[in-house]
Amino acid sequence: KNIEEQMNLNYPVEMGNGTPCSLRQKLPRSSTVMYICPAEAKHKILSVAEIATCEYQVVILTPLLCSHPKCRFR
């Protein structure tokens, strides 16, 4: 994930089966929570956006992800 012109590790979590969306024939709302690893960042919500009708994206900065063994740059 590119944040402020720097590539960062990320871990997306898909969430579905939300409340019915009246704008999409009562299909359930969905969200993607993107956990981003910028080592120098504090824990914070960077953004919340509706990327398509009734589809949302939340970007969370957390240095905790950086220490996980599977989250190392190769």
TrEMBL record:
* UniProt GO MF annotations: carbohydrate binding
* Stored Gene3D superfamilies: Mannose-6-phosphate receptor binding domain
What processes in GO biological process is this protein linked to?
Answer: endoplasmic reticulum unfolded protein response; retrograde protein transport, ER to cytosol
Task: Extract the PROSITE patterns matched here.
Answer: MRH (PS51914)
Keyword Ion transport among UniProt keywords? no
All copies of domain MRH, residue ranges: 1-68
Instruction: Name the source's superkingdom.
Output: Eukaryota
Q: Which GO terms describe its cellular component?
A: endoplasmic reticulum lumen
**Transmembrane ranges?**
none
Where is this chain's protein located in or outside the cell? Endoplasmic reticulum lumen
Primary location group = endoplasmic reticulum
**Keyword entries, A-Z:** Disulfide bond, Endoplasmic reticulum, Lectin, Signal
Instruction: State the function annotated in the UniProt record.
Output: Probable lectin that binds selectively to improperly folded lumenal proteins. May function in endoplasmic reticulum quality control and endoplasmic reticulum-associated degradation (ERAD) of both non-glycosylated proteins and glycoproteins. Lectin involved in the quality control of the secretory pathway. As a member of the endoplasmic reticulum-associated degradation lumenal (ERAD-L) surveillance system, targets misfolded endoplasmic reticulum lumenal glycoproteins for degradation.
Give the family this protein belongs to, as stated in its UniProt record.
Belongs to the OS-9 family.
The protein's name is Endoplasmic reticulum lectin
> What lineage is this protein's organism placed in?
Eukaryota, Metazoa, Chordata, Craniata, Vertebrata
